[in-house]
Amino acid sequence: MKQVVIVIVALVTMLSCTKSEDKLEEDQPLAKGRIVAKNSDFGFNFSDFNVLQDTVQKGDTFGTIINKQNIGDRKVYQIVQSVKDTFDVRIIKPNRAYTLLRSKDKKNKLQLFVYQPDALSYYIFDLRDSIIVAHKKTRPITLRRRTIGGVLKGSLSETLENAGVEAALANRITKIYSWSIDFFKLKKGDRYGITFTEKFINDSIYDGVDNLEASFFEYKGKLVYAFPFVANPTTGKVEYYDEEGKTLRNFFLKTPIKFSRLTSRFTMNRFHPVQKRWKAHKGTDYAAPTGTPITTTASGVVEKTGYTAGNGNYVKVKHNGTYSTQYLHMSKILVRQGQHVNQGDVIGRVGSTGLATGPHVCYRFWKNGKQVDALKLNLPNGEPMNGNNKVRFMQKIAPLKLELDSIADL
Ligand SMILES: [Zn+2]
């Protein structure tokens, strides 16, 4: 939003560098700021006024700005007093735009002061009558729908930039797909399609992306779709799903072993059964017979395999930029570093290597590089959509998918 304001101010400044400016400032030494190039704004016809625009400087207050208009201390005091109930003068902040509308007669008297805290809203101070009034107005927003797509000619950000879409959409898309696409691995020539709505203030000033309606990216030869949907109207939470209604967020299996017994929880203080001393146990232990298959609780890439005196044989899997899981004390490691694994794939077998009293797997969960208690995490819900939602979802995405598929078929 701030950017938009700056753009407008810059635009106004650029457009108004005309020769008449010097002449005007000579005639009216009080005038501060630039002539406004527009014909009308804020509901006023600018040809009826001497119109000047400027930005709030550091140290300016509502009082000092008004005071510079040479309307007298008493009048300034009166204005500040009369608007203080409707307007918190502290919202006057540096670099925001304001506009002065002055009478066209010889007096060049300040008639209206318009302050724009952002591109969307403005305050009008009407000084024309003895009773001074302040109103807050909001500019109308229009939404326009747009679909872009084809083949990638560069990174996602470059692609969006070339299409004149704000960079923030790239971040949104990267986040939505964080479980399913590594955007660094997209290749030139991969197909994509994105349908979204954009906001325009006063039907003309670009104000960024409002809503992502649908998208797909070709990744490793497959089209990965994303459609927003509110499965639970009570929470109103928007989640993204693929074309079959499966959540795009990966979810974790509850345990890395099918049939097991939880023997030790995550705790900052427990008596270590082998070391015979109190220490943190940053994992969850599941006991099972030696040789029981250990599965990765979510898809990802094997980050590390190895052996240490404490961990024994272990495997660590990276699921996305946020989550990793680790499996300790294996009798056998069945994957290698760098290997891609799918949720439920067997990555090793239960054992008691390292510091262990008996066969079990110590399951460790990492979030943003920190070990956390997997049992206490509010992890993405992997429940499939219920029947009603599925019908609603499929109906909603049908036309969106058709639209995207017409791009994919090119
Ligand atoms: Zn453990």
TrEMBL record:
Keyword set includes Endoplasmic reticulum: no
GO MF term set: metal ion binding; metalloendopeptidase activity
Essential cofactor(s): Zn(2+)
GO biological process, one term: proteolysis
GO cellular component: cell envelope
Domain Csd3-like second N-terminal: 146-266
The M23ase beta-sheet core domain, residue ranges: 280-373
Pfam hit, one: Peptidase_M23
Keyword Amino-acid biosynthesis: no
Subcellular location(s) per record: Cell envelope
Family annotation (SUPFAM superfamilies): Duplicated hybrid motif
Keyword vocabulary terms for this entry: Hydrolase, Metal-binding, Metalloprotease, Protease, Zinc
Major site of localization recorded for this protein: other
Gene3D superfamilies per the UniProt record, alphabetical: 3.10.450.350, Glucose Permease (Domain IIA) (2.70.70.10)
Protein's name in the database: Peptidase M23
